[in-house]
Predict the structure.
Amino acid sequence: MGRDKATLPFGPETMVERVVRIVSRFVDDIVVVARRGQSLPPLERIAWDDVDDQGPLGGLVAGLSAASGSTCLVVACDQPLLAPALVELLFGTLEAFEAVIPRVDGYLVPTCAVYRRDVLGGARALLQSGERKLALLAERIDAFILEEPELREADPTLASFRPCNTVAEYHSLLREAGLSEL
């Protein structure tokens, strides 16, 4: 994309501010994970990735390490169309599992999931072994996988999972949110 997605304008706020605003309706303790040197708008709590290039798994370790609760909602900064009903579904499905992770188009979406903080040890061990893929953690813990039929009950068009990896996708997200393009 050529620029930091977290700070892309999304209406009167940045993309990360919008995601924080949406999830703040469901959680009290919000920790935004960022890479060292990343410029972000003023946010309540930022956990810095201690080591560069550790991917989403490194971000999860940093976030879980900084979190105070036993259950953590993980959402990527580039999910500005996150449906509140999806967040409710994730939390409502957790029960006795260590995580609830959606699967969309045949792929796990571990960056829009709920994790128990207890998975931190396993996540650290994977990271120390050189692994960076968050989906591998999902295979090694007791995770409930939410499939598309259940996901569509909370988010009929699966807008929560729309990608934002290109300028065209970014503009598409703005249009879908009813916001003017830059």
Observations:
- Residues 58 and 127 are 7 Å apart (CA to CA).
